[in-house]
Design goal:
Elements (H helix, E strand, L loop, with lengths): L4 H36 L3 H21 L4 H17 L1
Helix pairs in contact: 1-2, 2-3
């Protein structure tokens, strides 16, 4: 257990940050699932309108370091390819 004042403060901060990161990561996963659902339904028009929002969401999360930028770029690339195939 932490025994210095700074370590105790750090524990509080880490706990707060962990909960924030979980929320952001779940938002990212929900956005991907929504887009994959649109692709499965073959709804190209809705998928194209949702693509910029998804792109923004992924880049925000990559910027904060929850996922890596390459991971976000790879996801966007794969989804864009799937939409173009529709």
């Amino acid at each position: 257990m932490a025994n210095t004042k700074s370590a105790i403060k750090r524990i509080r901060r880490i706990k707060r940050q962990t909960s924030i990161n979980k929320v952001r990561k779940s938002r990212f996963k929900i956005a991907l699932k929504k887009m994959n659902g649109l692709i499965e339904k073959k709804d190209k028009k809705k998928a194209l309108t949702y693509l910029p929002k998804l792109n923004s969401e992924l880049m925000k999360i990559a910027k904060t370091g929850i996922i890596k930028k390459r991971n976000a770029s790879r996801n966007i690339s794969r989804i864009t390819r799937k939409i173009n195939i529709l």
